[in-house]
Write a structure and sequence with these properties.
Helices cover 0% and strands 30% of the residues. By secondary structure, it is mostly beta strands. The chain has a domain at 1-38. A 4-stranded antiparallel beta sheet has the order 3-2-1-4, with no helix packed on it.
Length: 63
């Protein structure tokens, strides 16, 4: 089992429907949703959300 310090909390986006969830990224790169086994759309494939995708305080996203 990985050391607690090796696991990071991230935001992960479903590759099918773009829903975003809280997730853990393991040292080997695996992404596991927190509190869910998968997306309600049926997908189990997720990618990390890039910080640049977060809206700025004025509602825009970074380019």
């Amino acid at each position: 089992m990985a050391n607690r310090d090796d696991v990071s909390r991230e935001l992960a986006k479903c590759t099918e429907c773009d829903s975003v969830y809280a997730a853990r990224q393991w040292p080997n790169g695996d992404i596991q949703l927190i509190g869910n086994d998968g997306c309600p759309c049926g997908s189990a494939e997720f990618v990390l959300v890039d910080d640049d995708d977060k809206p700025a305080s004025d509602g825009t996203t970074a380019e």
